[in-house]
Specification:
Blueprint (H helix, E strand, L loop, with lengths): L5 H30 L1 H10 L1 H9 L6 H23 L4 H8 L2 H51 L1 H15 L1
Helix pairs in contact: 2-4, 2-5, 3-4, 4-6
Length: 167
């Protein structure tokens, strides 16, 4: 006999729901794929850096894929618009895919996305450390002002009381 709990039931419902969504997506993707095959071919080639970021990022949040994917998609959209403006068929796809500059632009912008993914945490750490050092210096000045105002004897008494309460 299994033990029933509300938490387990909620998990089971969420699991069932999560399986239902991809099946629906696949059912909708088949007709979309038939009618939009040239766009899907262009996107599958151009979005390779995003796929690489998705596979290489070990976090569950997939921050690398989000960052690189945003840059990658923004570089791919102009070429997708060119494809669509020329009819969106297989014939206009060939000149777009044979354009060397397209690959250079798309992959360089994806490299910028990787750079942003790497640099932002570094910058934020340094800014946070800089801010903490400023606060530490302010507290040191305030401590010195209090010592000048109340005297060193009071500070020694407080230290004694603190050390006795810890024992």
């Amino acid at each position: 006999m299994t033990n029933w709990s509300p938490r387990a039931a909620t998990r089971q419902r969420a699991r069932r729901r999560s399986y239902r969504i991809p099946k629906l997506a696949w059912v909708l993707m088949i007709p979309f794929g038939i009618f939009a095959m040239p766009s899907l071919i262009l996107l599958s080639i151009a979005m390779l850096p995003t796929f690489g970021a998705l596979v290489s990022d070990r976090r569950t949040e997939k921050y690398a894929a989000t960052c690189v994917g945003g840059f990658n998609l923004s570089a791919t959209l102009p070429y997708l618009f060119i494809l669509w403006s020329q009819g969106g068929g297989m014939t206009p796809l060939m000149p777009v895919l044979s354009d060397v500059w397209m690959y250079l632009v798309i992959y360089l912008v994806s490299a910028v996305g990787w750079g942003v993914y790497w640099a932002i945490p570094q910058i934020m750490t340094r800014v946070s450390n800089w801010h903490s050092m400023g606060e530490f210096q302010d507290l040191q000045k305030r401590k010195q002002e209090l010592l000048d105002e109340w005297g060193v004897d009071l500070a020694q008494e407080v230290e004694k009381i603190n050390s006795e309460t810890k024992k």
